[in-house]
Amino acid sequence: MEPVKKKKTTKEIVYDQIKNAILTGMIPKQKMLTETSLAETLETSRTPIREAVSELLKEGLLVHIPRKGFKVREITESEKEQIIFLRRSIEAEGLRKLAKVVSNEQIELLREIVNRQEEAMAANNRIKYIELDQFFHRKILEFADQNLLERILKEVYNLTRLIGHTALMKEGRMEEVIREHKEIIDALENHDESKATELMIDHLEKTWETVRSVENN
Fold first, then answer.
1. Which of helix, strand or coil describes residue 170?
2. Which residues pair with 70 in a beta bridge?
3. What is the mean pLDDT of the chain?
4. Tally: H helices and E strands in the chain
5. Cβ count within 10 A of residue 176
6. pTM of the shown model
7. Residue 207 exposed, middle or buried by CB count within 10 Å (0-12, 13-18, 19+)
8. Tell me: the pLDDT tens digits for 121-144?
9. How many CA atoms, within 13 angstroms, populate the side-chain half-sphere of residue 212?
10. pLDDT surpasses 70 at 4
């Protein structure tokens, strides 16, 4: 027997479509959105639109503009610097803790996540690829028993996703990310705390360098 697959509600379908459009850059940053315009575009009622927009506002992917509507959240240069600082600090600490105690089962799970990333890349599914990227980074903190840091990273990652697709626009970056993830796993498997943290910091720096180079072109 196979698990029963639950059909998605209209709200879930609407949520997925709007979120996909946000994360792939299909919605221009300056474009003003309204429940009416979204309902007309997606050919549905305003109720599932309102519910989906409410979720996206909570996630920080949309912002409300009084008396006008909604627009995609823009990340300032200052916020970008704060994000990279937080991610470097949080994820380096997670790897330092995990390298000492990581189990074979945890290593295998991390490898499985990267394998699924490769499948998403082959299918050109950027949204799935980015979701698995987040899963990989959060699992490291979970395995390291850094639950508070994991929750903070989740909030930071909501903002990171808004610019994550920008980095993937660079030819070959998706393959580079997978290779860098594999190198981090290898260092963890060898319980090499110094190498693992060095690789993670380098991985994050390369991603942000790619974002800056793409945005400046």
1. coil
2. 33, 64
3. 88
4. 9, 2
5. 15
6. 0.78
7. buried
8. 999 888 788 889 989 999 999 999
9. 10
10. no
CA angle centred on 23, ends 140 and 16, rounded to 5°: 95
Closest CA to 73 of 114, 23, 113, 17: 23
Place of tokens 């627009």: 71
Over residues 206-216, the pLDDT tens digits come to 888 877 776 66
- Select from 108, 111, 162 the least CA-distant residue to 132: 111
Mean pLDDT across the stretch 177-198? 96
Query: Which residue in 205, 217, 187 sits closest to 85, CA to CA?
Result: 205
Single-letter residue type at 188? L
C-alpha 45/C-alpha 43 separation (Å) is 7
* Residue 154 CA: distances (Å) to CA of 14, 134, 136, 159: 23, 8, 12, 9
Sign of CA dihedral 15, 168, 78, 217: negative
What pLDDT was estimated at residue 215?
67
| The token pair that represents 122 in the structure block | 């082959």
